[in-house]
């Protein structure tokens, strides 16, 4: 694996639990894995790297410790008058201050978008507190699993703002712009794993604790990694491209994509493996 070549990220534990699989674990358990400034840059650098890494076929993201996937934004750090864009006194003019804030928000949005645009399938394994930013981050992942102890919350209205780095744009695409979606976003009330499963926010509640959750995440990632990377990455790309397109437009996009990708040797290997009842192997991508 290319773990040794990955960007330095002191606030994340990066490992390879199985061939072609990368585990990225938020490593700030004493603060419930809450995010502050250095972590944003580190997370983006990791996803940008592994997105193009030919040794990587699936990525798992989780949180260190027993208490939280992430409790969201480190509010104490964010309210520091010396570093916060919100409390910056550099510009007294509202328009100029708004420009600074807009740039700051776009920068943070791009961090979460780096997860969404990652070429490799991403699996969020959530346990404990999954508040605020946890929903932004997991909504950007392809697949979401959780433990029975997970406590979800779109927390932002409780700290006086509309969620601005991804939740309000992505969660309606994940679960639909439903009454339930608006309820949890408008009230900031916590919701349970069972409620998350019922409303299609997670695909599975894994029985047991964090250990069993991560084992399930690794097994799922291994299954994905066993498939043709040309087929897997193409499938993810086409599914993501379907958002905002008509069926006809996406069918045309699919035809153009597969006009190139069907020429891969992976197609013949996969077909022959089925006929000869053997496990196929595929080249890196």
Automatic annotation (TrEMBL):
Gene3D superfamilies: 2-enoyl-CoA Hydratase, Chain A, domain 1, Lyase 2-enoyl-coa Hydratase, Chain A, domain 2. Keywords: Fatty acid metabolism, Isomerase, Lipid metabolism. It comes from Knufia obscura. InterPro entries: ClpP/crotonase-like_dom_sf, Ech1-like, Enoyl-CoA_hydra/iso, Enoyl-CoA_hydra_C. The lineage of its organism: Eukaryota, Fungi, Dikarya, Ascomycota, Pezizomycotina. It comes from the Eukaryota. The keyword Cell division does not apply. Pfam families: ECH_1 (PF00378). Pathway: Lipid metabolism; fatty acid beta-oxidation. Belongs to the enoyl-CoA hydratase/isomerase family. The keyword Isomerase applies. CDD domains: crotonase-like. This is Secondary metabolism biosynthetic enzyme.
